M48 family peptidase
Amino acid sequence: MTPSSQPLLTDLPSYTVRVSSRAKCVRLALSVEDGLEVVVPSNYDRLKIPEIVHQKRDWIARNQRKLDEREAFFRSQAPHELPDYINLRSLGEEWQIEYCETATKLGSISIREDKEQLRLVLDGNIADIESCKALLKRWLMQKAEKHLFSWLRKVSIRTNLPYRTTAVRGQKTLWGSCSRDRNISLNYKLLFLEANVVEYVLLHELCHTVHMNHSAKFWKLVGKIEPNYKALDKSLNQAWQIVPAWLDF
Ligand SMILES: [Zn+2]
């Protein structure tokens, strides 16, 4: 008995066969949607296909790897996707978000808050990602108005540094600001930061009601109220990293 010269055609990658009347010879195609496809001309002897796939196994492995890498890259670029939780460190609240696809008139979306479970439910045309994001942002703005305004009032009373009005904004590079008329604006993204860092921002802006600059006198006033201000200022500079990327896309 002579050993067979045929290679063992086990462990072949799975594939589908597609007959194409336009194909002149056998060809392999690999894609995320269809996987591995063997395209053959009509009247092709299908018994030859396993051998061809076997011969092409290096090409298949190499291209499969490329596809996997590209997929991983797209998955890592997640900011265009919707978040499944929102961690408001400053308040010690982590909200889970659920999206429920329901048919509504005009394709609208609504947001529902379950305070006990710290759960947000978005109902409606949730395929509309931009509208979902806009709703979540609006919810964050309202949350910021509710919590940051009263927080600022408390710090103001405690430090005896009065201000005139407050507003919540969503600037990309500014945590807060104070005008000459002592109007303070605060970034709603402060909600994502640790409470002691937020408290430092509030104090910092309140000190600007006395000194409209970053002079030695200004820092002396800050230091009198918060001796640890240097470390807090430093962590504030790095804090942009913990603001979720989906907010700015
Ligand atoms: Zn400042």
Remarks:
- Residues 204, 208, 214 surround zinc ion (CB under 6 Å).
- The domain at 85-248 is CATH 3.30.2010.10 (Zincin-like).
- The chain has two domains: 16-76, 85-248.
